[in-house]
Write a structure and sequence with these properties.
Layout lengths: L6 E6 L3 E6 L19 H4 L6 E6 L3 H18 L2 E6 L5 H10 L6 E4 L2 H9 L8 H10 L2 H6 L1 E2 L2 E2 L1 E8 L2 E5 H6 L9 H13 L6 E2 L5 H25 L8 H14 L2 H4 L2 H4 L4 H9 L7 E3 L4 H6 L11 E5 L10 E10 L4 H10 L2 H8 L7 E2 L12 H12 L4 E3 L1 H4 L2 H4 L5 H12 L2 H14 L6
Parallel strand pairs: 3-4, 3-5, 10-11, 13-15
Antiparallel strand pairs: 1-2, 5-13, 6-7, 8-13, 8-14, 9-11, 9-12
């Protein structure tokens, strides 16, 4: 399961808790800067003969890429990690069962801050050591430290990341329509979509409304640009109601695209299209669409299709556009490594994961599609220019990014099919009723349990 998709996790405290995981140059010449930690066998320690366990969600090429990281740590310290991929890729459920059963792994990856907070509040996690804290501070924007912390204590080390503020487009369709420049504003996006429609593209913008999480990502990007960072944080933690005027403005803005059948086709048809289908519509051999909004993992979704468009040639991306002059902002998602064990080798491993060296081992594996938010990783370490550009946007925005909103809310509200945000935004896509959508969202938010401040 790729970063930013949704997964379930349960842990036992006094009862079972559940949360859901949905959703400038980054180069410094390849050398850590600002005092960044550069782990080596000497600085991490000698752990020859030591072993530890790691539970993750990755299989196939992604697992092979992560194995590069494990191999690098073994070379530096002599310690060997025993990696287990969760059955069916549902790492959160498997992890919850192991923790509930009193047999957690030494290290696990967690896809959202809400899960990290619940494990930490239950006393299940071991804080990151001073060396690990310094490595995270040196190599990541401050917001990543905040996301990996609970009540001011760092428990999670950022690993991979997804840039969720990208719009992917079919360059051939743009050329055929006479569009030479990609849009940088919301109004330009709408105008280009109309031009594509006039040129014969059946559904200019493919919307994968069959997967409700794609609609939450649409909303979150629009809200980030129309309401700003502070309101985004407040709404994320339900500190302002969903009936707030800022939500109405974001929904009205979304309606400019979602409510225009000439741009997105029939809403009822869009609600039957899964995420993969929306990508396929824009990049299959005979495309019916020319644009699709979703995250950086669209690139690997394209390459997984039969007879796919070539990423970087026909399949390209541009940043989610500015709305009403909004400043650059970015939505991201990612995985954090957390420790359930007090073994010294585990703390050394977390410190290593925060380093540019570990990030390079992860992202340089051809075909994995991994990105890293490590600001001291050279973009030339990525296997292709497109991934480098995606990572550059992720890093260069600095602290002007926010983690996927729905991934930070309680499971029943932010990440459950046919419930909460997913269902309410699907209904909004169908009927375009702003007031009804706000009332439904606020009702479901109030009924959800597990909000964190």
């Amino acid at each position: 399961m790729r970063t930013g998709r949704k997964a379930f996790v349960g842990i036992a405290v006094t009862a079972s808790l559940a949360v859901v995981a949905a959703c400038g140059s980054s180069s410094s010449g390849g050398s850590p800067s600002g005092g960044a930690t550069s782990p080596s066998a000497g600085s991490l320690g000698n752990f020859s003969g030591k072993t530890f366990t790691v539970l993750g969600q990755w299989t196939g090429e992604e697992q092979a890429a992560f194995q590069n990281v494990l191999n690098g740590f073994q070379k530096a310290t002599g310690a060997k990690a025993r990696y287990t991929a969760a059955a069916g890729g549902d790492e959160a459920t498997v992890l919850g069962a192991k923790v509930n059963g009193g047999n957690p792994p030494d290290v696990a990856t967690i896809s959202l801050p809400g899960a990290l907070a619940q494990y930490a509040s239950a006393g299940k996690l071991v804080p990151v050591s001073a060396d690990g804290q310094q490595a995270v501070k040196d190599n990541f924007a401050e917001e990543w430290s905040t996301l990996g912390s609970y009540k001011g204590t760092l428990y999670g080390v950022p690993m991979d990341a997804a840039n969720k503020s990208t719009v992917w487009y079919n360059a051939d369709a743009f050329n055929d329509a006479g569009i030479s420049d990609t849009p940088t504003t919301w109004d330009e996006l709408i105008q280009d979509a109309k031009t594509l429609g006039d040129s014969g593209v059946k559904v200019p913008i493919a919307v994968g409304g069959g997967d409700g999480w794609t609609l939450t990502d649409w909303f979150e990007n629009v809200y980030l640009r129309t309401a700003g960072l502070d309101n985004y944080d407040k709404l994320t933690h339900h500190q302002i109601p969903w009936t707030d005027p800022t939500v109405a403005k974001a929904l009205e803005t979304l309606k400019q695209i979602w409510g225009d059948p000439s741009l997105v086709g029939s809403p009822s048809a869009a609600l039957k299209v899964p995420f993969t289908g929306s990508v396929d519509a824009a990049f299959k051999a005979k495309p019916t669409s020319a644009m699709v909004y979703e995250a950086s993992f669209v690139a690997s979704t394209i390459t997984g299709d039969k007879d796919p468009a070539e990423v970087g040639t026909t399949a390209k991306f541009f940043d989610f556009p500015s709305i009403d002059g909004s400043s650059p902002a970015l939505e991201a998602s990612g995985d954090f490594a957390v420790a359930f064990s007090k073994k010294p080798v585990v703390q050394a491993f977390l410190t290593y994961l925060a380093s540019p060296e570990a990030a390079k081992e992860l992202v340089s594996f051809e075909g994995s599609g991994f990105l890293s938010a490590n600001k001291n990783l050279d973009t030339s370490d990525y296997p292709n220019e497109t991934l480098g550009k995606l990572a550059d946007a992720l890093v260069s925005v600095g602290d002007n990014f926010r983690f996927d909103m729905s991934d930070q809310t309680p499971a029943e509200f932010g990440g459950t099919p046919n419930k909460g945000m997913w269902a309410d935004l699907q209904s909004f896509l169908r009927n375009g009723n702003v007031q009804q959508a706000q009332q439904a969202l606020e009702r479901d938010a109030k009924n959800a349990k597990g909000w964190t401040s």
